[in-house]
């Protein structure tokens, strides 16, 4: 079994619950907390789920929006079945059952 983690980025909904509907309103809130991001970076942060976020940006977002990290990022854990290789049958045993058959060598008959 492998474990898959799915994340959901909820910054836009947290902003909406605080009455902030424009990304330009978030930039001054972050600057008050010492985080200087460009207008484009703030827009991408709100509209797209980021692959990585600096810890000081997360702390500033949580402080500015008066929320916790759990409100911004939702993590869902799911167990997935291990992938089955092509041609592998689920009813077969381990590799020990797949030993080759020993070849027999026959000499040609002489006339």
Automatic annotation (TrEMBL):
One of its GO terms (molecular function) is DNA binding. Residues 52-72 form the HTH cro/C1-type domain. This is Helix-turn-helix transcriptional regulator. It comes from Microbacterium tenebrionis. It holds the Pfam family HTH_26.
């Amino acid at each position: 079994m492998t474990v898959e983690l799915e994340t959901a980025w909820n910054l836009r909904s947290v902003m909406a619950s605080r009455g902030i509907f424009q990304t330009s309103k978030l930039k001054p809130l972050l600057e008050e907390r010492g985080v200087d991001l460009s207008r484009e970076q703030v827009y991408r942060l709100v509209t797209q789920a980021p692959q990585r976020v600096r810890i000081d940006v997360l702390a500033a977002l949580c402080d500015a929006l008066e929320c916790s990290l759990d409100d911004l990022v939702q993590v869902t854990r799911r167990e997935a079945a291990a992938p089955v290789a092509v041609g592998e049958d689920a009813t077969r045993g381990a590799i020990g059952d797949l030993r080759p058959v020993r070849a027999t060598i026959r000499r040609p008959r002489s006339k």
